[in-house]
Amino acid sequence: MRRLLIMLFVAAAVLIAALAGAGLWLRSEIDAPYYDGQEEGTFVEIPRGTNPGRAADLLVGSGVLRARLPFVLYIRYANLGRRLQAGEYRFSGPATPKQVAQRLVRGDVYSRTITIPEGLTAKETIELLAKHGLGNRQELEETLLRRDWIRDLDPAARNLEGYLFPETYRFSRKADAETIVKTMVDQFRTKLARTMEANPLPPGWSISRIVILASMIEKEVKEPEEAPLVASALVNRLDRKMPLGCDATIIYAMKLAGTYQGRLGKADMGMASPYNTYLHLNLPPGPICNPGAGSLRAALRPAKTDYLYSVSRNDGTHQFSRDFNSHVRAVERYQKSLVRSRSRQ
C-alpha cells in the first residue's frame, strides 16, 4: 500500500510538473513573435465561417504562425472563436499568436485606399483607379456603361458620368471593376439622399438636371462658399432663357473629342457640340464631371440673387454682375488687365 501511494505521489508530481511546463511553454509561445512568410509580405484569406483550427492551419501554412496550438488555445481561452472576421489579411513581419488573433478579431483586413477628387470626369476617374492598380482598365471602362444602375435617377443617361461620387474609398486587393464602380454609384445615392433630406428637389427639376447643374458648379467653383452664388447665376440665366455661357462645358466637349490641350481658345467658343452652352440654350445633355456634396447642395438650394454674369478674379473667386454693362466692366478689370500684364512680362 505504501509503495502504491508513493507511486501515485510520484505520478501526480510528474503530471503537475508536465502541466506546469506545458503552461510555461504555452505562455512563452503565445507571446513569442514569429514570421517565416514572403519578404514582401504574405496574404492570408480567412473565409467566412472559418473556425479557429482552420484559421490556424492557414496561418501556419503561410508562415505567419510557427504552431497552431498556441493560437487555438488562446482563441478558446479568450472566448474569441466566434469573433474572427473574414477577409484578406497581409502580414509582413514578426507577430505573436496573440497579436495575430487580435488582428483577426478586429477585422484588420488588407485594403487599398484611394481618394477620388471632386470634379474628375468618369474617364479621369477610371484612369486614376487603374493607375493605382485598382481594377482592369478595360473592364472599368466597360462598367461605365452600366446605365441600368442609375436608370431610376437618369433614364436618358448614356453612361455613369456624374454618378461616381468623389470620396476616399477602401477596396480589397481583389476587388473587380464592377465592385469598384458600383461602390461609387451606391455612395452617390447615399450622399444624394442625405443632401435631399435637408434640400428637397425644387419644383420642375429632376435629379438628372440637378446633377448636370451640380457638375457645372463643381467645375466653375474654387471657393466652396461661392457655390450657391454660381448656382444662382446659372439658374437665373435658365429662367430668362439665356445661354449659360459656361467654359467648362466646352472643355468637356473638347475632352470627349480628344482635342483639349489645356487651353480654351476664342475659336473653340464656336465648337459644334450640344455641350457648347454659348450656342445652345438650357443645360448640356449630361453631366460634365462627378460633383461633390457641396455642389449638389448648391444646385438644390441656390442663393437668392439677381446675378446673371460672373467672371474670374484670377484668385479663385468670381466677380458677379446683375447686368451686361457691369459684366463688361468686370471683364475689363479682371481679364483684359491680366492679358496686358502678361504681355509686358
Strand order of the largest sheet: 1-2
Look at the helices and sheets and give the structural class.
mainly alpha
Largest beta sheet, briefly? 2 strands, antiparallel
Count of helical regions: 12
CATH topology title of the domain at 32-110: Dna Ligase, domain 1
Approximate strand percentage? 5-15%
CATH class of the domain at 32-110: Alpha Beta
H-E order: HEHHEHEHHEHHHHHEEH
* CATH architectural name of the domain at 32-110: 2-Layer Sandwich
Q: Report the strand count.
A: 6
Q: What is the end-to-end distance?
A: 114 Å
Q: Any overview of this molecule?
A:
By secondary structure, the chain is mainly alpha-helical. 48% of the residues lie in helices and 8% in strands. The protein has helices at residues 2-30, 52-61, 68-77, 97-106, 122-131, 137-143, 177-198, 207-220, 227-239, 247-257, 293-300, 324-344; strands spanning 42-46, 87-91, 112-115, 168-171, 309-312, 318-321. The strands form three sheets. Strands 1-2 form a two-stranded antiparallel sheet. The chain is elongated, with a radius of gyration of 31 Å. Residues 10-15, 17-22 and 338-345 have low confidence and may be disordered.
